[in-house]
What we know:
By secondary structure, this protein is of the alpha/beta class. It has 14 helices and 9 strands. The strands form 2 sheets. The protein has a 7-stranded mixed sheet, with helices on both faces. A two-stranded antiparallel ribbon has the order 7-8. The mean pLDDT is 93. Fe (ii) ion binds at residues 198, 202, 266, 280.
Amino acid sequence: MRLTDFPPEPRIVEMSYPTKVVFGIGALKRLPAQVERLKMKKALLVTDGGVVKSGLAERAIAVLRAEGISFTVFDSVRPDPTEQDALEGVAAYRRSGCDGLIAIGGGSPLDTAKLIDLLVTHEPPLSRFIRDDLPPLIAIPTTAGTGSEVSRSGVATLSDTGRKTVIFSPYLLPKAAICDPELTVGLPAFLTAATGMDAFTHCLEAYLADAFHPLADALAIDGIGRVAQSLEKAVSHGTNLAARAQMMIAAMEGAMAFQKGLGACHALAHALTPISRLHHGLANAIVLPAVLEFNRGACVARLAQVAITMGDNSLAREEVLASNAIERIRKMESQVGIPTRLRDAGVREADLPLIARKAFQDASHLTNPRKCTEEDLLSLARSSF
Length: 385
Ligand SMILES: [Fe+2]
């Protein structure tokens, strides 16, 4: 795949797939037009302390103020949010008489805004079934990772189970996403690498998932190519807007693709984050090579295609290409500074059995290309340790 340079000239494009996406350098200035389109009279601006500190929330606030748009800021979303974060947002929404939401930040504020959106029209707890339509939500990502801006899922630790759980509903799709690569240029190298590897893992696990979904496959393989060509550039030169833009596209593609399914890597990551306080993208990145070795025999042809997409021109046999894909992924991770072992990221060996048990309870592994038992997940965690 050859990427055309982005942008050949400053431009902003709009696309619907199905979320209305306003994409391009400076896209943030189009936020008021979306507020107007969605007929919001007063918005709850959902964000977190990190986004406020970075000055990015203030940029959105300045754009809203300049157009005289009414809003209330809710900036107390915690990392790895729980149902409680969403309930506090619901209280702020009601107190201020809001009729729509704008979320700016990484996965935590974006997902929490979706769950606030849900809980203002539905009685808690979150574990209940979702039926009706929700107020409009505009999502503004400041990382290129989760793709939450175009996904139909919101993740939070539930009050009544204590488990980090993915809530799926087409109603959770934001009504608009403002994707401005300029908002990611200040993201530190480590977070660029970790969130970028989350986007890559969404694409890769979706592409390898044991399900039939050619539409998701097309998005996933395209996203794999974009990450392979852009992640290292975005990490080493944070101000490279072309690389930042490609990563933002890949993050959206990954989130659109993973409706097909994910795999054992995400099952393990969903357990590692609450138990070991590991960044979600970093958890995925560290266990990914071991998961791919485990899966290799079940998805040789697809892994070979991954190697070709990542730039392998060797014309080798499929089996060789499949191994090359895993090697290329290892190399990409080391180039962007991902540690190779869980122990180096602060995971305790004594927690591995619990991590495997929680990972087995996570539905993500059900579409892993090779079926896995709790023992398999434990041995994957051990070999990544
Ligand atoms: Fe993820």
